[in-house]
Each structure stands twice: as C-alpha cells, then as structure tokens.
Amino acid sequence: MNPFSGGVAVITGAGSGIGAGLARQAGQLGMTVVLADIDGDAIEVLRGEITASGGSAVAVVCDVRNPVAVSQLADRTYRDVGPVRLLVNNAGIEQFGYLWDTPVANWHRVVDINISGVFYGVRAFLPQMMTSDEHAWVWNLSSVGGVLAAPLQGAYIASKHAVLALTECLRLDVESAGHGHHIHVQAVLPAAVVSNIFESAGGVDPAEGSDAAVADQQRSAMLAVKAGAQDAMTAAARIFEQAAEGRFYLLTEPSVAVAMADRANVLAAQLPPLLKRR
Ligand SMILES: NC(=O)c1ccc[n+]([C@@H]2O[C@H](COP(=O)([O-])OP(=O)(O)OC[C@H]3O[C@@H](n4cnc5c(N)ncnc54)[C@H](O)[C@@H]3O)[C@@H](O)[C@H]2O)c1
C-alpha cells in the first residue's frame, strides 16, 4: 500500500514550483495538505484548486525564517489537522553573482530560508513525530547543486550542500535516537524543474561597484535552462515514487545520479574545481 495515500502532508514553499507540484500530487494521492508559504495569495489559490478537485488542503501563511512561526505551524497542524505523516522542508531561494559581490542581506536571506528554514522545520516537527511509533517521512530540498560546484551561485550552492549534509546527519540522529524504524529521513535532489526560483532570485547591487552584468548573465543562462526543464508534476510524481520505495536520495531525473557519481570521482581523485572538466 502506498504510504502517501492518506495522512497529513506539510509542505513549505507550497505556493509555487516544486512545492506546488508536491502539494498537488499529495492531494491527488489522498493526503490532507497543509500549504505553508509567505505568499498567502498563492497558497489560497492552490487550496481552492485542490479542494475543488475533491482533495483536502489548508493554507497557512508562514515565513520559514521565523522559528516561532514554524513552531506555530507545527502546533496548529497537530491541533487542528492531525499527526504529520510527511514534512517537506522545501522553501528555498536562489542568488546570482560573484560571492564577493553578494550583498550581506542577500547572503543572510539565502542562509535563513534555505538552511535555517529547514532546521526550524526539523526542530518544530520531529519531536512531535517521535511521540508515537507511527511512520512519518521528512524530505529536505537539497539540489543537484548540493553535489557540485558552480560559479556565480556560490551562496545558493553552499546552502544546498548544507541541506544535504544536514539531512544525512539528521538521518543518523534519528537512527541513533532509536526512531529509525518509523521516521524516514530523505534528501530530495532535483535537477531543473519549472518554477519561479530564477525570476525571484537575488542579484547584486551595481551601486556598490558589483558586477551586475555577470550576475544577470547567469540569471539569463539559468532561465534558458528552465525553458527545457521538467514540469513540477512529473518531478513530484518521481519524488513520491522513490520515497515509497524507501530510497534515501530522491532524484527528479537520471542526470542527478550522473552528477553524484562525478562528485564522488572528484573527491576520490582529489581534483580541484574546474569551470569545465574534460
Ligand atoms: N526549480 C529547480 O530547478 C530546483 C532545482 C533544485 C532544487 N530546487 C529547490 O526546490 C525548492 C523549491 O524551489 P522552486 O524552484 O519550486 O522555487 P519557487 O520560487 O517556484 O518556489 C519557492 C516558494 O517558496 C516560497 N518562499 C520563499 N521564501 C519563503 C519563506 N521565507 N517562507 C516560506 N516560503 C517561502 C515562495 O513564496 C515560493 O512559493 C527550493 O529549495 C530550491 O532550492 C529547485
């Protein structure tokens, strides 16, 4: 039986892109979906769509940068909706530009949303998930960028490496605390999926003397990648399938496995980062 055919799913950043795809998929599978996002309008529209097609969803405005708000999201979910079967720490943002040009506020935005937001989700939900022996799943959104190095996206790439490491450590924490038999920690590593992440990404400030042209070029290059990207529903279906199979690394397409193997080779051979490897 599919473990995701019922129960409660909480998805941060559910208002757009991958989060919205996962929310639609969860709703179609029969889960009650808690849509959490800073964009209240977007999650309200999605809540209407999911309920209109016979699903069950609740919209909760929540800024994952705020640990109190994330705790309140958990408390409200357990009190008003039910025990959480699936937590998806998905909210995330991009940042373009040379690392030295990155405005300090933008650096903090990336760290606060992409890394601390995941940590706050773990801190708010895991203790409640571990109060029973019910099976429950935690998915954290890393990226193919979590296993490679790339120029002009240093803050983002660093954050995705951090999420991968955090997720691997969390899995070990859960196991060492004796909950490995029912708490299933899994890392999601998408390749390119259609979303708004590149449009809403931070850039650099030319007034500070930063190289805005090169940051804009990188944004344009990533928007060109988006033109051929996978749609979010296909990505979501793959993620749910692999999670149900009990995999740890949940990949949206085979190219991510190639990047993982490349990373393993680079580390094993102690190769320095190169812009293009021959
Ligand atoms: N789209 C891709 O190609 C891709 C590839 C690899 C990994 N990812 C990861 O997938 C996740 C989702 O990204 P996406 O591409 O769907 O982006 P997106 O911009 O389409 O969606 C992100 C959502 O997060 C919300 N959000 C932003 N800040 C928030 C905050 N502080 N609190 C709560 N919600 C907030 C936004 O309002 C938006 O609805 C991110 O973690 C991203 O790093 C995306």
What's a quick, concise take on this entry?
The chain is α/β, with parallel strands linked by helices and 278 residues long.
What this model shows, in words?
The structure is a single chain. Helix content is 49%, strand content 14%. By secondary structure, it is an alpha/beta fold. Helix 4 packs parallel to helix 5. The chain starts with 7 loop residues before the first strand and ends in a 9-residue tail after the last helix. Bound molecules: nicotinamide-adenine-dinucleotide. Nicotinamide-adenine-dinucleotide binds next to helix 1.
How many DSSP-defined strands?
Answer: 7
State the order of secondary-structure elements, H for helix, E for strand.
EHEHEHEHEHEHHEH
Give the biggest beta sheet.
7 strands, parallel
Give the neighbour order of strands across the main sheet: 3-2-1-4-5-6-7
β content, as a range? 5-15%
Q: Distance between the terminal alpha carbons, to the nearest Å?
A: 46 Å
Residue windows where pLDDT falls under 50 for at least 5 positions = none
- Described by its quaternary structure, the protein is single chain
Over all CA atoms, what is the radius of gyration? 18 Å
Q: Provide the residue-averaged pLDDT.
A: 97
Shape: globular
User: Percent of residues in helical segments?
Assistant: 40-55%
Helix count?
Answer: 8
Structural class based on helices, strands and sheet pairing: alpha/beta
Ions, cofactors and other ligands present here are: nicotinamide-adenine-dinucleotide
